[in-house]
Amino acid sequence: MSSHLGASVLSLALGLGFCLMEAVPAAAAEARGLTPALVEAMKVPQQNLGSLSCRRLWHLEHKVLAAGRVCLSTDRARRAFGKALPCISDEERILPKRARNYLDEVRRAQRAKSCPVD
């Protein structure tokens, strides 16, 4: 292979790599068991959770549960997320560890704000 052709191939590969960089985190997330719905539900960075209202924290908590296909236990949550994919379990342990950790942080923020438990 000529050096010019080799440089062109390398340039093309690098260009494709930069174009696909946005897809890599999603692919890596799915490899860790995070579905696109869970990635979307967990888009609020953990360091920003403390700035959310109790209402927003409640919504975020249940959005993650619904995206992870955990069966929602309250009428309020079922009404809010009735169009979510059908649930598969009442157990949060079906969620990937990263999603469970995220829920822990959401709930920690709720406790810090003395949010009502619902």
Structural features, described:
- The protein is mainly α.
- The chain is built from 6 helices and no strands.
- The chain is globular, with a radius of gyration of 20 Å.
- The N and C termini lie far apart (66 Å).
- Residues 5-24 have low confidence and may be disordered.
Essential attributes:
0% strand, mainly alpha, globular, 118 residues
Map the helices and strands:
Blueprint: H1 3-20, H2 23-31, H3 36-41, H4 54-67, H5 75-80, H6 97-112
Helix pairs in contact: 4-6
Radius of gyration: 20 Å
Which structural class best describes the helix and strand composition? mainly alpha
The counted number of beta strands is 0
Regarding quaternary structure, how should these chains be classified?
single chain
The helix-strand sequence is: HHHHHH
**Strand content of the residues, in percent?**
under 5%
Helix coverage percent of residues? 55-70%
How many strands, what sense, and barrel or not for the largest sheet?
Answer: none
Low-confidence stretches: 5-24
What is the number of helical segments per DSSP (H or I, 4+ residues)? 6
The residue-averaged pLDDT reads 81
Shape: globular
